[in-house]
Amino acid sequence: MIADDSAIVARRMGVRRGGRWLLRPADFDVTGGVVGVAGPPGTGKSTLLATFATLRRPHVGALGILGHDIGNAHSVRAVRARIGYLPDRFSWAQGFTVAEFIAYSAYYKRVPAGTAAAMLERLELGEVAATELALLPPDMRLRAGLAATCVHEPDLVLLDEPLTGLAEPEANALITLIGALAPTVVVTARAIEELTGWCDRLFALGRGRLIEAAAAPPPVASPLATGPVPSVPGPVTPPARAGADGTERSARLAVGTGACV
Ligand SMILES: Nc1ncnc2c1ncn2[C@@H]1O[C@H](COP(=O)(O)OP(=O)(O)OP(=O)(O)O)[C@@H](O)[C@H]1O
Description:
The chain is α/β, with parallel strands linked by helices. The chain has one domain: 3-Layer(aba) Sandwich (Rossmann fold), CATH 3.40.50.300. The protein contains six helices and ten strands, in the order βββαββαβαααβαβββ. The strands form two sheets. A six-stranded mixed beta sheet has the order 6-7-8-3-9-10, sandwiched between helices. The protein has a four-stranded antiparallel beta sheet with strand order 2-1-4-5, with helices on one face. Strand 9 and strand 10 (about 210-215) form a beta hairpin. Helix 3 (about 100-110) packs across helix 4 and helix 4 runs antiparallel to helix 5 (about 140-150). It starts with 7 loop residues before the first strand and ends in a 48-residue tail after the last strand. Bound molecules: adenosine-5'-triphosphate (ATP). Adenosine-5'-triphosphate binds near residues 17 and 22. This is ABC transporter.
């Protein structure tokens, strides 16, 4: 039984698929902020995210999401209403216009139509509201996906490789927006460099292990610098929207941390 209000609490949780461990039994906690999980294709990012979304059960151990033990069927129903999950390469409703897609999402999430309209504006989709999803460029299609995912204002948002395939300017424009979607956002990417500089915490997934890496590269020391040495960034302080090093979330392609998996 997990009695902890953290967004994600794993206790000896292990995830298997295709006859192998994607995550060997491990303990970890996510209390809030933007959390990045990086790993090459096939390491298990999508499966882990689907587990956090309660669509899959851990093979062993316990998983708490937003204070609910997801080993309990009643808890799963309650917690799903507070999660926003956008799978990798989502391809729903290609024939819907942006406005229809968000309105439909609002309808099945029992959210008033006015909230859907507000979300459309918040994601800066007003100009393409009448355009079909299939005709949108990738970044605008992602914005529509984010709007539909978050129309019910979830407490935990799970985004599977949202920035994969986007050009750097479009990706950078979305980073601040992604960080503001919910008190806790988990985002995956193939390379840790894509997440460095704007996520509050970073993990590398590979060979069945989830290893935490430094969330920001250490500041370059100036030979003329005086005063105390800056400390290593501490744990996430939700719902801070600045990066863990206090900078804006604009340095998506900052120098990597060298974390190995
Ligand atoms: N339908 C399936 N049946 C059996 N095993 C699967 C299936 N889908 C995935 N797997 C196994 O799970 C592993 C992890 O897949 P997953 O999609 O979670 O990884 P990923 O890191 O998200 O990769 P990608 O970036 O390609 O989506 C795969 O390497 C494969 O061994």
